Amino acid sequence: MNDTPKLTPAELAVSLFCQGLRLDSSCRTESDARPLSPRRAGLGSGIELVIPGAGKDIWINAPLTERFAANSPYLLQRIPDGYVVVQQGHEHSWPVLLPPTPHWYQARTTSGKPMSRIGILQGTCLGIYIGKRCAFWQMSPAMQCHFCATGINVGVHEEAEKTVAEVVETVRAARRESGITFVHFNSGYQEGNDIAQLLPFVEAVKNEVGALVGVQCIPPPDPEEYAPLLRLGVDHFSLCYELQDSEYFARYLPGKAKHIGQKRFLGALEFLCRRMPRATVSGEIIAGLEPTSKTLEAIDYITDQGAFPTVCIFRPLAGSVLQDKEPPGYAEIVAILRYMALTCMRKNILVGLAPNIEVSLVMTPDDARYLLPRDFVWYLHHSKLKLLKWLVRPYFSWKMRKRR
Ligand code: SF4
Question: Cα–Cα distances in Å, from 36 out to 46, 71, 267, 294?
C-alpha cells in the first residue's frame, strides 16, 4: 500500500544522494549510461541520471558503489521505453534519463591518449584535473582530505599528466559533440604551483576553443597571484574550504589545515568576490560532516560576500578515510538546501544564468530552489531569473567566443 507522499524530482535527488541507488538486473548500463568508474574530484563514483522535473530537470550522480548504497530502497529498472527509479516498499516510481556516453569518449588525442582520460562530463560540464596527484596524498603520513578519493583515481582512471594540446583537443571535441559550454579545471594541491600550472590550459581553452572556464585550486598565499587568471577572463572561481567549523576543518582536512589554513581560503574568497561579478565565485561546502548550524553559518558567510554556496552532500566514498561513515540523513540535508535557496533568493544572488550548466555532484541554489514551496516570492524570483537568462545570452555568447 502506498502510504507516503511521492517525492518531487528535487527531493528524490536528495534522497538518492543520501541513500544511494541499486541496479536491477534489467539495466544495461554498459551500453545505456556513461561509464561508472570512480573519477576525479573524489566526490562522485556513481551513475549519472537526469530526473525530469516541471520547470527544471535535476542532474545527479547517484551513489552506486558505496557500502551504504547496497541497502538503498531505490532500484533502477529498465522498462520498454527507458528507465525508472522504483522506491521499494512503496508504489512510487519516477522516470529518469541516462545521459549516454558521448562519442568523443572513444576518441584519442593526436598523442594517442583516450580523451575520456583527459576530461569527463559531470552533468553537462567538462571536468579536467590538472597537475600531478594531489600532494596531500603523497605526504607521509598522508594528509588528504578525509572524504576524498582523488588520489586513487588520478593516474589510474585518469591521465596524471596532460598536455595543453591534449586538453584543447578534448575540449574542442566535447564542445562540438556534447555542446558543453563550461570547462571546470581542478588541481588538488600542487605545492604552490597551482595557478602557474593552470594558466596555459585556461589561456589555450579561451583562445583556441572558446568556452566558459571555472577554476578550483588551492588559494595562493597572496591573493594578488590570481591576477593572471583574472586577466585571462576566468568566469568562475570555486573555493573548496568544505567546513566552516575550524575544529572540524582541522580534523577532516589535515593537509589543508596544516599547509594552507582555513583563513587563506576565506581571504581568497573575499578577494575574488571584490574582483569578480556577483555570484560568479562559489564556496564549496560539505553538508553532513559538521553540525548543521555550522553549515548554515557557512551559507550566511558565503552569501554575505556576494558568492554562492555549492553544497556537496557528504558521500563516504570507497577508498576515502571516511568510507565507513554513515551518509547524512535526508531531513538534515533538505533543511540545509532549503536554507541555501532561501538565503540566495533573499540576498538576490542569482544562480543559473549561464547557458547549459547542469552539475551532478553538488546541489546549487538553482537546484535547491525546487525544494521550496512555490509561493509568490518563489515565482517572482523564478520569473526574474528567466528574464535575465534571456537578456544575458549575448553576453555569454561573447564570453564563449574563440579569441584567436
Ligand atoms: S585538496 Fe583535498 S579534496 Fe582536493 S584533491 Fe587534495 S585531498 Fe582531495
Answer: 6, 19, 37, 33
Give which of 377, 239, 345 is closest to 302, Cα–Cα.
239
Instruction: Judge if the beta carbon of residue 189 lies within 6 A of ligand 1.
Output: yes
Cα distances from 253 to residues 122, 145, 178, 245, 284, in angstroms, run 24, 4, 35, 11, 14
- Only one residue has cell 547496497, namely 70
Rounded to the nearest angstrom, the distance between the alpha carbon of 137 and the centre of ligand 1 is: 8
Give the end-to-end CA distance of the chain in Å, rounded to a whole number: 62
Ligand 1 contacts CB of residue 42 (under 6 A):
yes
Q: Which triple of cell numbers denotes residue 389? A: 537568462
- Amino acid 196 reads A
Residue with CA nearest ligand 1 atom 8 = 148
Grid coordinates belonging to 343: 538565503
Residue nearest to atom 7 of ligand 1 (CA): 144
Domain residues of the chain, as ranges?
9-96, 103-397
User: Residue 303: helix, strand or coil by DSSP?
Assistant: helix
User: Which residue's CA is the closest to the ligand 1 atom numbered 5?
Assistant: 188
Residue 42: the pLDDT is 47
Task: Please determine, looking at this structure, whether the domain spanning 103-397 carries the CATH number 3.20.20.70.
Answer: yes
The whole-angstrom separation of Cα 18 and Cα 373 is 21
All three cell numbers of 140: 607521509
For ligand 1, what atom is nearest to the CA of residue 149? 8
pLDDT at 155: 56
Q: Report the candidate in 404, 384, 395, 400 with the shortest Cα–Cα distance to residue 277.
A: 395
Residue 90's pLDDT band (cuts 50, 70, 90): confident
Pairing of strands 93-96, 82-87: antiparallel
* Ligand 1 mean position, distance from CA 230 (Å): 23
Are residues 268 and 157 in contact, defined by beta-carbon separation less than 8 angstroms? no
SS3 content of the chain, % helix, strand, coil (to 5): 40, 20, 40
- Reported as a single tens digit per residue, the pLDDT across 330-345 is 999 999 999 999 999 9
Nearest CA to ligand 1 atom 4: 188
CA atoms within 13 A on the CB side of 81: 1
Phi, psi of 215 (to 5 degrees): -130, 135
The residues, any chain, with a CB within 8 Å of residue 312's CB and separated by 6 or more, are 43, 242, 284, 285, 286, 287, 361, 362
- By percentage, how much of the chain surpasses pLDDT 70? 95
**pTM of structure:** 0.94
